[in-house]
Amino acid sequence: MITFNDIKNNKVINCYITNADASLKAIGYTEHSFAHVGKVAEDSAYILESLGYSERDVELVKIAAHLHDIGNLVSRVDHAQSGAIMSFRLLDHLKMDPEEIALIVSAIGNHDEGTGVAVNHLAAALILADKSDVRRSRVRNTNLANFDIHDRVNYSVTSSKIIVDKNLKTYTLDLQIDTSISPVMEYFEIFLDRMIMCRHAASKLGLSFKLVINNQSLF
Question: Which entry of 58, 97, 183, 202 is 20 to 30 Å from 219 by CA?
């Protein structure tokens, strides 16, 4: 049985993740390397654990999270689909169970807001964890004067946490934003589609999606 540690410690897979992130760095994108996939793995696991999913489901979503941005090696455009195809080949080569491969590949192929849909529980948790990873440390640009809107919004986030309340049936993304760096409106300008996607993903898990910014409920 293939485990998350098998994938996390696979030198071939990690080579592709490293080079995928290098491609994004070359075109000015925020960090999509091991810090990002590690946080997405941790948060997606927390989501499913909080809702009582099995240990194996938790393991599978962590595998999907580790692999989810590998398609950026090919291109940022349609990276979810190319990443799904790459992941299929890698997991099939490792002789993973086809039913588990199917879940993981579907989740990876559907994680991006351009084309993605929460087609299963893994996809839903992956979408929520991925789109909730907004934080200052993802910004590579060190010159504030040269920040674009994505840099400003990410850099303005001084605190970010997710909360799953099984009893209230809510998923909350709670952010603290330094509005002297980026007004709240800029967050919505670039992330509204992602928040709508999160609402649908939360619904797939039987939850309502809540967005709280600077202690104000906005979504």
Answer: 58
